[in-house]
Write a structure and sequence with these properties.
single chain, alpha/beta, 6-stranded mixed beta sheet, 5-stranded antiparallel beta sheet, 6 helices, about 30% helix, binds adenosine-5'-triphosphate
Amino acid sequence: MSLSVDIRKKLADGKREFRLDVQFELEGNFQVLYGPSGAGKSLTLKAIAGLLKPDSGSIRFQGKTYFDSESDTHIPPEKRNLGYLSQNYGLFPHLTVRKNIEFGLKGLFQIGLGKSDTGSVAKLMELFEIQEAANSYPRFLSGGQKQRVALARALARNPEILLLDEPFAALNPDLRQKMREELKNLRDRIQIPILLISHDKIDSDFFGVSPLYMEHGKIAYGPVGEN
Ligand SMILES: Nc1ncnc2c1ncn2[C@@H]1O[C@H](COP(=O)(O)OP(=O)(O)OP(=O)(O)O)[C@@H](O)[C@H]1O
């Protein structure tokens, strides 16, 4: 991936103020953004996804400008062609597993799926081994199954990058390790760049990358040899 982030954002909710001031450039297909709770990791990911508009700066991905305050460019999230997984997975409780994934494919305004669409939904359910839960609602799924559905939904649109916000945080320790292994396998199979947020150093160690470390709204250090 070639991702360049250089953004500033001031957030205030009355009593508290938080300043995000983030600069980094990423090459390679997998990176972990790591740091303590409240460091500004989720805000950074949201800005890349287009869900948070920075006050100033720029965000560029694979040569495309997603955000640039100088030229007043702010591409909306649905036009950024990325898969974004929030901390709670964001599944729609009133939609079955199949419908949740179809939503990923077609968005809110679908008017029926074509044959190739139903084929890709079936393939995704197979890839994540959730075919048996196709007609179940999210509340009947385990944490690991929910995460697989969310990943399948994020991949349905054939994104150019996957942004994962603490994908293991909601899982119990056993499942967490299993899902780490699953994600590692997925990474090796799908060849889509992944940027993963974690407050646990284990994640960057597990995936064999030197992380970008963030605290107090800033990148404190980057992969060895960069900054
Ligand atoms: N709208 C807002 N107004 C003021 N402060 C905010 C707002 N949104 C987030 N913050 C603050 O910004 C800081 C960074 O939040 P963020 O969610 O990015 O942290 P994080 O590094 O992802 O932490 P965690 O690992 O706990 O999710 C936090 O202190 C949070 O309280």
